[in-house]
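Table S2 (continued). Query chain:
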Amino acid sequence: MKILKLFNSQKPKKEVARKASRSFKGASRSRFTSWLMSTFSPINRDLKSDLQTLIVRSRDLAKNNEIFRSHLHNMQKSIIGNQGFRLQSLIKNPDGTLADDLNKEIELAWWDYGKTTNGYVSKCGQFGDIDFDALILRTLVIDGEVFIRVDKKVKNPYGISFELLDSLQIDTTKNQNRTPRTKCYCYGC
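Corresponding output:
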């Protein structure tokens, strides 16, 4: 019994009174939160300063990360598919019936324009419509934007071709805020 009393005879330690303080532990920096870059600047300013770095990193993922490459492949397969986009012309006669001959002629011309062997779609002449659409989708997913130059002075039976521009070759310092325009600058106006 005396042995048990020896162990129990120790006096309880006094608790050290902690000073009550207010803290925001969620906002403190640690090795787990050091990657978070908190900033009070608008998102467009952050994007403008880090855009090239983001594009380069995304392109590196597209080359070296098989999960990202698989995602790109699945996007192409599910959005564009094996046969690409196909035109279904539904032009009607004045009486309301479908103009079958005209619709078939338009669909055949669209098919001819998009054939890879013709090379009418791309300015370089190497892409058909499926390949060019896949390149547009891939560029959009990787870079976050796509720049397409329309050439209406090309010498092919349809008089139009397209060229994809590298987004890193576009001068990002020339961005301006959108202002209302008085004149329409779209094609065909």
